[in-house]
Amino acid sequence: AKDHGRDCFQFYTSVMHQHAKARSVLESALHKALSNRELSLVYQPIFAQLGSAEVVGCEVLLRWKSELLGHVSPEQFIPVCEELGLILPIGEWVLYHACSQAKAWQDNYGNPLFIAVNVSSIQFKRQDMVELVKKVLRDTKLEAKYLTLEITESVLVDNSDKILAQLKALRALGVELAIDDFGTGYSSLSYLKRFPLSKLKIDRTFIRDLPEDEEDKALVSAIILMAHKLNLKVIAEGVETPAQCMFLKGLLCDMTQGYFHSKPLNQSDFEENILTTAYH
Ligand code: C2E
Ligand code: CA
Ligand code: CA
Ligand code: CA
Asked: Ligand 1 center to residue 221 CA distance, Å?
C-alpha cells in the first residue's frame, strides 16, 4: 500500500509538473502574441428578430494563432491574459481595432452597425475605462452610440463604487452596456436595477434545448418579459436552428446571434457575406 501511495504521488507530481510546464509555455507565448501580430479579430453578426430580419450589429471575438502552439481558443488564453495583466494591452488593442473597423464599415458601406466588445472585469478594476473609451472614440471618430461594451455578472457582483461610477460615465457618453452570459453567474438580480444597462444577452445554455425543453422555455420567456419591463433589449446567444429562431421571435426577443445566421467571420468574409448581400 505504501508503494502504491508513492507511485500515485510520483504520478501526481509528474502530471503537475507537465501542467506547470505547459502553462509556462503558454505564458511566454502569450507575452509575444501582441508584438508578433499573432492576434486577430473575427466578427459575428447580430440580427434583428422583429420586422425585417436585418443585421444590426456584430460581436468582436479575439483569435490567437501562436507561432509555437497554433490556434488557441479564447476560453483557454483569456483567463491567462487576465491573470498576467496582459488583458490590459490586449483589451486596448481589441477596442481600438473594433472601433476603427466599425467606423470604416459605416463609411464604406453606409451601414450603421453597432459593434459589441467584450470587456473583462480586470480592465474596469485596473484601468480608467472611461478615459480609454473616450480616447478611442475620439481617435477613430466612431459615435459612442455604436459601441456596446459586453460585461459579465462578475463585473457587477463586485459592487464597487469605482466600477459603478465608470459604467455611469460610459453610459453618459452614449456608450451602450450589455450584460453577457445572463443567467450563468450569480443569482442576485439587484444589479439589473443598480447598473445602467441597455441590453441583456441570454446565455446559449438556455437556448440550446429550445423549443423542446419545458424548463428552458419557461426561463427564457420569463427572462425576456423581465428584461423588457426593465427597458432592456434582449439578444439570444447561440441560436443554431430555425426552430429556435422562430420560437424566440414568438417571445418578442429583440435580436439573435448564432450559427443559424452565421459563425464569426474575418473582416473580408464579413464584408462579402454580410455587408454586401441582401440582408438589408
Ligand atoms: P462570449 O462572449 O459568450 O462569446 C460567444 C461565444 O460563443 C464565442 O466563442 C462564439 O464563437 C460562440 N458562438 C457563437 N454562436 C454560437 C452558436 O450558435 N453555437 C455555439 N455553440 N457557440 C457559438 P469564442 O469566440 O470561442 O469566445 C469565447 C469567449 O472568450 C467569449 O464568450 C468571451 O467570454 C471570451 N472572449 C472572446 N474575445 C474576447 C475579447 O476580445 N475580450 C475578452 N475579455 N473576452 C473575449
Ligand atoms: Ca460576449
Ligand atoms: Ca456570451
Ligand atoms: Ca460565454
From this structure: 23
Residues with Cβ within 5 Å of ion ligand 4? 181
Q: Which cell numbers hold the place of 88?
A: 490590459
Q: ∠29-124-75 over CA atoms, to 5°?
A: 40
Instruction: Give the residue from 99, 109, 115, 147 showing the smallest Cα distance to 273.
Output: 109
Given a cut of 80, whether residue 67 has pLDDT beyond it is: yes
On the CB side of 254, CA atoms within 13 Å amount to 17
Residue 49 in grid coordinates: 428578430
Tens digit of each residue's pLDDT (9 = 90 or more) over 137-157: 999 999 999 999 999 988 887
Dihedral sign (CA 23, 66, 152, 170):
positive
**Site to substitute for ligand 1 among 65, 78, 86, 201, most atoms within 8 A of C-beta:** 78
**Before 211, cis peptide (omega within 30)?**
yes
Q: Return the amino acid letter for 272.
A: E
Q: Which residue has the higher pLDDT, 274 or 4?
A: 274
